[in-house]
Write a structure and sequence with these properties.
Layout lengths: L3 E7 L2 E8 L4 E5 L10 H7 L4 E5 L17 H15 L4 E6 L1 H12 L4 E7 L6 H11 L10 H12 L22 H14 L3 H10 L13 E5 L17 E4 L4 H12 L23 E7 L2 E8 L8 E4 L10 H7 L5 E4 L17 H15 L4 E6 L1 H12 L4 E7 L6 H7 L14 H13 L22 H11 L6 H10 L2 H6 L5 E6 L8 H7 L4 E5 L3 H13 L1
Parallel strand pairs: 3-4, 3-5, 5-6, 6-7, 7-8, 11-12, 11-13, 13-14, 14-15, 15-16
Antiparallel strand pairs: 1-2, 2-4, 9-10, 10-12
Helix pairs in contact: 1-8, 2-3, 5-6, 9-18, 10-11, 13-14
């Protein structure tokens, strides 16, 4: 059963959710600090009988935080009600895991007319002492470190969450009754922690402050408290009152989902949800994110600006990476004209192409398909680093649609360097049991700011520019590149090996070459300028306002 992803605007916040199946609504709510991705298995099982809606709860995944300094579970339940209202869902069953279970049951208590039943997979039950300990020791801050050591800490902190409960009490008495997660599962969890950032503690802490079993007498709709062997909450089953509806689920996740589906079928919601709204509505002062269906895959697209009469600007982002890294630039330029940016297939939040190809030509196909989906016939093209190859390939494929080319620090390398460097430019970042692949990504990116090429750590190869090494910035770049590790090395190989100077020389379009001295490929500008002596060269300081000013100058020059 295919799961599709969607954005929804609720007031001034963005809500991200996934959808599968048809029939009565059931809302799935994940544990902290994850996202709806972790619920894909039960969502697919439920989708055979329900419209299964899995939400990124506020502050996790791609959903905005609630506009409260310290939201409680009650606020998360009300936020869910607001999202369901925006979706036109009158009544739903709720299903939640851990923090999501607290929200699911609280929704049933606060909005009984809108909830046919609630089902939990590990409802959080804590004594006052245990809750106090979790709040003081469990939710440690995420602080980026210059050497990437925080990534190793995050890796084992997330892994040990499944080995000990709580993770910081690492003794036999607290050993979990389950297998350790595999590297792919752990990688997803660490990326989701990086996505939430230090704000992960906001939503997570609400579960430890919630009233738990004390709210049971106030419930007026059916609530089934499910627990699975191997889950941290399984040991709490004896603490429930005798009258509580409890059910022990199978240990196997697939078998458990089948039993959970049968439980949900006992009290289905009235009616069925309407089709999803086609697009999220804009929020002032930021880009609007939506998914577009392109060749059987979903592509994430950011748009901003509605100024009439100005030709759109399409930004082709660097890959591996995503459009999220260009949000500040989008906001700066959105007052001038419509601006579009997208995640190329296999990067950020966009699905991979069915054929798995990573190449500038493939990324260019997506660029024009995005324009087609938006009704854009012509546009100026801005490409950054590997995105410059995307822009050039797009202009070559459909020259009449490209009004001009703005190439920001293009990866313009001579043939000899391309042949020598492309095969081995990127390390293997297949998730490893010890998280070492994250350190390889971190130090590759960091060393790219210090040497060129990055692995030639000699004085002769040292870059004579002020490096961009702020840990917070590196973490943002690495987080986006790490979302789909299978595309990491192929994208780098395609970008480094592509004959950009030769392809650029053949284009008849007006070209502007932009560069900040601190850019990782700033030293490649001369190679691009040599093949296009007619290009307008603009150097800018390494700030977003200066970068936006350079783009404006290139568009009007």
């Amino acid at each position: 059963m295919r799961i599709t992803r969607h954005f929804l605007t609720v007031g001034n916040r963005r809500v991200h959710y996934t959808r599968a199946g048809e029939g009565p609504a059931v809302c799935l709510l994940h544990a902290s600090p994850c996202s709806a991705k972790v619920l894909s298995l039960p969502q697919q099982v439920f989708a055979g009988h329900f419209t299964a809606l899995a939400f990124d709860t506020p502050g996790f995944g791609l959903s905005d935080l609630l506009p409260l300094e310290q939201p409680e579970i009650e606020d998360f339940a009300d936020g869910l009600a607001e999202a369901l209202t925006a979706l036109g869902v009158e009544q739903t069953a709720t299903y939640g895991r851990h923090t999501g279970a607290s929200i699911a049951v609280e929704f049933a208590r606060r909005h009984p007319a809108r909830c046919s039943m609630a089902l939990t997979d590990g409802f959080p039950v804590f004594s006052a002492k245990a809750a106090e300990e979790r709040l003081s020791r469990y939710l440690l801050p995420i602080v980026p470190q210059w050497d990437g050591s925080h990534l190793v800490w995050l890796w084992f902190r997330y892994r040990d969450q499944h080995v000990f409960w709580p993770w910081h009490n690492q003794t036999l008495a607290f050993r979990a009754d389950t297998d350790a997660p595999d590297p792919d599962f752990n990688h997803r969890g660490v990326v989701e922690l990086l996505e939430a950032g230090d704000g992960y503690r906001i939503g997570y802490s609400a579960a430890f402050r919630h009233r738990g079993l004390a709210m049971l007498p106030e419930l007026t709709v059916p609530v089934c408290f499910g627990n699975r062997p191997g889950d941290s909450q399984h040991r709490t089953m004896s603490q429930y009152p005798t009258a509580a509806w409890q059910q022990e689920m199978p240990r196997d996740p697939l078998a458990a989902a089948a039993v959970e589906r049968a439980v949900l079928l006992r009290h289905p919601a009235r009616g069925a949800p309407p089709p999803p709204p086609p697009l999220a509505t804009p929020i002032a002062g930021r880009s609007t994110t939506n998914y577009y269906e392109i060749d059987g895959a979903q592509v994430l697209v950011r748009t901003i600006g509605e100024k009439q009469g100005a030709a759109p600007l399409v930004i082709a982002p660097h890959v591996p990476g995503s459009s999220a890294l260009y949000e500040a630039l989008l906001r700066e330029l959105g007052n001038d004209r419509p601006v579009i940016c997208f995640d190329p297939p296999g990067h950020g939040e966009s699905d991979p192409r069915p054929d798995g190809v990573q190449s500038p030509e493939a990324w260019a196909e997506t660029l024009w398909a995005v324009c087609d989906a938006l009704g854009v016939s012509q546009a100026h093209l801005l490409g950054h680093n590997a995105g410059a190859a995307t822009a050039i390939a797009a202009a070559a494929a459909q020259p009449a649609r490209a009004l001009s080319l703005l190439l920001d620090a293009p990866i313009a390398l001579p043939e000899r360097a391309r042949q020598a460097w492309a095969p081995s430019w990127a390390p293997d970042v297949t998730p490893a049991w010890d998280g070492s692949h994250l350190l390889r990504m971190w130090h590759m990116r960091r060393d790219m700011g210090l040497w060129f090429p990055w692995w030639d750590r000699t004085l002769a190869a040292a870059r004579a520019v002020e490096p961009r090494l702020a840990p917070e910035e590196l973490q943002q770049e690495m987080r986006e590149a790490a979302k789909q590790p299978a595309s990491f090395a192929p994208a780098w190989q395609a970008a480094i090996g592509w004959p950009l100077p030769e392809r650029l020389a053949q284009l008849p379009h007006r070209v502007a070459l932009l560069v900040s001295g601190a850019d990782l490929f700033g030293q490649c500008l001369d190679q691009a300028a040599a093949v296009r002596p007619d290009a307008h060269v603009i150097r800018y300081a390494d700030t977003t306002p200066d970068r936006a000013a350079a783009v404006r100058a290139a568009l009007t020059g």
